[in-house]
């Protein structure tokens, strides 16, 4: 790291682009360092940092005239939820046609794109404060995007669970109606279904077995092991009929899973990945409580879930194996990821093709294959 001397660096290049790029790079590095502090710091500090992301409305709500913050988490979450319901609180009487049955909460959490030709495109941004993410008529480029707002995503969670049957009775049927009507550029239906299931699993971990009415949803990070147990289903066998050496594989799997006991995760919504896929992007996603959706038609994984690890050891994660070296008195934060591949399979298939599984390797998604640069779309 170069020591700062307090002097302005000389701009290289006649057009000044080199100096501008250096300035942008420094700003990006500072931003990522801030996200890293948010992730590895205290819960209260992280909550206040989330309030500063997205719309200025959230921060102004919890700030007094003297600039001092107050404990107004519930008030902010109520405000965010109301914005997704045309300004009214989620209630049995407000899940109606005027509020589109709370479907904006689904758009917010899934980060889906809306067709400009749809009447929903203007309503979602102007009336329901859902994500402002349009695609052009050829469906191959963004017009504009404002997709990551952690506080609004927390408000969307309230819309989902304020009523015990709100999601199943009102939101999902309306969302299905929009999909069948072609109002949403949904891409692969299987991928969208996977996102919903992963969000439900993450919500269950965050609630820690308590009813939604008894908690303030600040969405603190939870152990990766807790998430894996929810996804697997503790009452369901982890092997299917037809798989060989089921008992041996189960023991090996439990042993492998135990290695992730010091890892944590947490996401409230999905965003379309447009950033460079590296360690900085993972800290960015963690800091904003987000998971990522890869561009369409890309070989390999479809979804990315960031995770992190902090303990008084130095660790390096390499695919499913982790190597650790003890260093007394040193704490190191490590960031890694889960890659999710969504495949449509018939009910009589019990094993995913080996070629598909190999594409989940991080080297395949992020690196080069056969010494040739891999093209991404």
Secondary-structure element order, N to C: HHHHHEHEEHHEHEHHEEHEEEEEHH
Strand content: 5-15%
What overall form do the CA principal axes indicate? Answer: globular
Radius of gyration (CA) equals 22 Å
Instruction: Estimate nothing, just give the exact number of structural domains.
Output: 1
Compute the separation of the termini in Å.
Answer: 34 Å
Largest sheet: 6 strands, mixed
Which structural class matches the secondary elements?
Answer: alpha+beta
- Average pLDDT for all residues: 73
How many β-strand stretches?
Answer: 12
Helix tally? Answer: 14
| Amount of helix | 40-55%
Instruction: Flag low-confidence runs.
Output: 1-16, 130-134, 142-146, 312-330, 346-356, 368-377
């Amino acid at each position: 790291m170069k020591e700062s001397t307090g002097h302005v660096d000389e701009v290289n290049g006649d057009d000044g682009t080199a100096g501008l790029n250096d300035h942008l790079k420094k700003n990006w590095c500072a931003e990522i360092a801030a996200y890293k502090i948010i992730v590895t710091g205290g819960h209260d500090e992280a909550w206040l940092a989330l309030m500063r992301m997205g719309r200025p409305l959230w921060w102004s709500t919890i700030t007094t005239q003297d600039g001092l913050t107050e404990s107004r988490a519930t008030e902010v979450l109520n405000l965010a939820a109301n914005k997704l319901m045309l300004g009214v609180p989620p209630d049995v009487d407000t899940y109606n046609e005027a509020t589109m049955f709370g479907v904006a909460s689904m758009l917010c959490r899934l980060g889906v794109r809306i067709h400009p030709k749809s009447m929903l495109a203007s309503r979602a941004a102007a009336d329901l404060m859902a994500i402002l993410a349009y695609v052009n008529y050829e469906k191959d480029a963004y017009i504009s995007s404002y997709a990551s707002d952690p506080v609004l995503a927390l408000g969307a969670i309230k819309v989902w669970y304020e009523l015990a049957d709100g999601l199943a009775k009102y939101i999902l049927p309306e969302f299905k109606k929009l999909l069948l009507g072609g109002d949403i550029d949904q891409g692969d239906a299987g991928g969208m279904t996977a996102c919903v299931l992963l969000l439900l699993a993450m919500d269950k971990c965050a609630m820690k077995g308590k009813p939604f009415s008894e908690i303030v949803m600040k969405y603190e990070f939870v152990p990766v092991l807790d998430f894996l147990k929810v996804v697997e289903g503790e009452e369901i066998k982890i092997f299917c009929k037809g798989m060989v050496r089921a008992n041996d594989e189960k023991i090996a799997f439990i042993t492998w899973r135990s290695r992730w006991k010091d890892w944590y995760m947490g996401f409230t919504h999905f965003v379309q990945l447009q950033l460079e896929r590296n360690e900085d992007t993972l800290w960015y996603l963690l800091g904003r409580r987000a998971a990522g959706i890869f561009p369409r038609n890309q070989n390999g994984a479809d979804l990315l879930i960031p995770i992190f690890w902090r303990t008084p050891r130095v660790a390096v994660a390499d695919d499913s194996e982790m190597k650790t070296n003890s260093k007394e008195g040193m704490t190191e934060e490590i960031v890694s990821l889960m890659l999710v591949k969504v495949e449509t399979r018939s009910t009589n298939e019990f094993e995913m093709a080996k070629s598909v599984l190999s594409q989940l390797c991080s080297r395949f998604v992020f690196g080069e294959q056969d010494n040739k640069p891999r093209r991404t779309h």
